[in-house]
Design goal:
elongated; 19% strand; four-stranded mixed sheet; Arc Repressor Mutant, subunit A; alpha/beta; five-stranded parallel sheet; 269 residues; 41% helix; Rossmann fold; 11 helices
């Protein structure tokens, strides 16, 4: 995610960037010292959020905001100022927020929760996109993974839910066949599911995401963009996207909701 910080005072730019990084550690922060510079950077970037000082020499922050919205009407702009009298003018522009300096991470979190145009999680075209909130889905560059067997998708879902930890064959059988006794038949079928999942990943060049050692299997977390992992890392966008639903199509997914709810309810972030 690209964020633009605009302020004519260098120390304030850097200080605000530091606070933003506390909230959005993976953000790429660009900086501008005046309105004209901000507009040029904005034109040549994919910026989702702008923190914009109101009082600057030359073209003011309010004028800059108007020009940015002409370029991209749905851009989120959070105005920053040391003077509260500009609030009415700022809101007339329908900006995303308004903060009085000095700004800290709690101020930023609050404004992110109330943006007019909610932010989306950053994506990497070279990684699997995994959605766990709501129904589980796995895609690569916009296309869903293709499995020959229905339970292959559930196998992937459970390995994702393990968050990088390993699962034994016995554990996988217990999950996939809902507590039935482990039999030679479902052990054999599990082998077929593993091959099917490997082939589905291989077809999109992501076979290295699936790892195993002896009788244990796991997913390489570095190969995926996952809303669940972002939630656990404290990403406020992922936290806001959570609506009390986790891998709805799998009954075992309910067990994870308790932990998710304890994080949200406990205000860990």
């Amino acid at each position: 995610m690209e964020i633009l910080v605009v302020d004519d005072e260098k120390m304030l730019r850097q200080g605000l960037a530091t606070e933003i990084k506390k909230v959005l550690p993976d953000a790429e922060i660009k900086m501008a010292e005046n309105g004209n510079q901000a507009i040029e950077i904005f034109k040549n970037s994919d910026i989702m959020l702008v923190f914009l000082d109101i009082e600057m020499p030359g073209i003011s922050g309010l004028e800059t905001a108007k020009k940015l919205k002409e370029i991209q009407p749905d851009v989120n702009i959070i105005m920053t100022t040391a003077y509260s009298q500009y609030a009415v003018e700022a809101y007339k522009l329908h900006v995303g927020g308004y903060l009085l300096k000095p700004v800290d991470e709690d101020d930023i979190r609050e404004e992110l929760d109330n943006l007019k145009h909610p932010l989306t999680l950053a994506e990497d075209d070279n990684k699997l996109k995994i959605t766990c909130f709501g129904e589980f889905n796995a895609t690569f560059r916009g296309e869903p993974l293709k499995y020959k067997r229905k339970k292959s998708k559930e196998l992937l879902a459970y390995l994702i839910a393990k968050n990088g930890a390993t699962a034994t064959r016995a554990e996988l059988c217990d999950i996939l066949w809902e507590g039935e006794s482990v039999t030679r038949s479902n052990q054999s079928y599990l082998g077929a599911l593993i091959i099917d999942l490997k082939n589905a990943l291989k077809s999109v060049g992501m076979e290295s995401a699936f790892c195993h050692s002896r009788n244990e299997y796991y997913l390489n977390k570095e190969k995926v963009n996952c809303d669940y992992y972002e939630f656990l890392n404290g990403n406020p966008i992922a936290i806001k996207n959570y609506r009390g639903e986790f891998m709805l199509q799998y009954s075992w997914g309910e067990e994870y909701i308790w932990d998710l709810e304890s994080v949200v309810g406990g205000d860990d972030f």
